[in-house]
Amino acid sequence: MTQTITVIRGDGIGPEIMDATLHVLDAMQVGLAYEEADAGLVALEKHGELLPQATLDSISRNRIALKSPLTTPVGEGFSSINVELRKRFDLYANVRPARSYPNTRARFPGNVDLITVRENTEGAYIGEGQSITEDGETATLVQKITRKGSERIVRYAFDLAVRTGRKKVTVVHKANILKTTSGLFLKVAREVAAQYPQIECTEMIVDNTCMQLVMRPEQFDVIVTTNLFGDIISDLCAGLVGGLGLAPGANIGKDAAIFEAVHGTAPDIAGQGKANPCALMLGAAQMLDHIGQPEQATRLRGAIVATLEAQDNLTPDLGGSGNTMAFAKAIASRI
């Protein structure tokens, strides 16, 4: 049976890495059909708006989207198109795996295999209640954490651990100082953790977490935390395994899910065939897991690993002399 997904090619290097990713998905014959939609600068040029209603309708209809990086112009439109999409579709769970891959700039080769689960819809990162005094001397921001938001993200993390055979969830917080907001998150996390006795639960203050990730990342399995902390930690984890070129992300809600490469549009190399498509391909693997094709997701990840091991047509950031599509074809040949 064919499943239609929304495809957003994005800006900068976005179309190149999307072409490469769809080439590999087509080679896998996983029964996907593509409905293309625009967002970002491309949408602004074609439709006069950054996030057209037709794109929102496509995501609502198909419930699954694969998205390349987008540019949000400075000084106009949304604070972030990605944040706007998360709000519109209540994509409360941001899921960022970090894994060591061969022949990369990983700081801990073979030693990192963890997932950061980040609350995606509330907290300081959302930027609610921002204001600045008339004299420009004082800026304020409201940080709001809810029991509902905390409960569902922590439960998602524990369910993910159970589903994927992981053994431990680390709840990351700053409740020693932020006693109301982070304190509520930690309290709810403890309540949820008690319902999963088969999963080890540990608690860690966010600053210590960052230090421990750099010193002994192998101690982590699943991390669950609030929005701003998760944004910082997930990028730190990407640095441990060789950079954002190997960092996929999933934004998951009850009625829709968007899978993406979390890096930027890299306009300085756009159109040159230098872009590494692995992050978006790994996002596509997350998508395959989500739509009930875990065996195909494993095939895709395995082909990426085999190509990295063989150093076959790797892109320049990985130390090779291949281009984006040649790298994709090398991966497809190993499917």
UniProtKB/TrEMBL annotation:
Group of enzyme by EC: oxidoreductase
Isopropylmalate dehydrogenase-like domain residues: 4-331
Keywords: Oxidoreductase
Enzyme Commission code(s) on record: 1.1.1.41
UniProt xrefs under Gene3D superfamilies: Isopropylmalate Dehydrogenase (3.40.718.10)
InterPro entries in the record: IsoCit/isopropylmalate_DH_CS, IsoPropMal-DH-like_dom
GO terms, biological process: isocitrate metabolic process; tricarboxylic acid cycle
Claim: Oxidoreductase is one of the keywords in the record: yes
Keyword Oxidoreductase: yes
GO molecular-function terms, A-Z: isocitrate dehydrogenase (NAD+) activity; magnesium ion binding; NAD binding
Matches recorded under Pfam families: Iso_dh
Similarity comment: Belongs to the isocitrate and isopropylmalate dehydrogenases family.
NCBIfam families: PRK08997.1 (NF006529)
Protein name: Isocitrate dehydrogenase
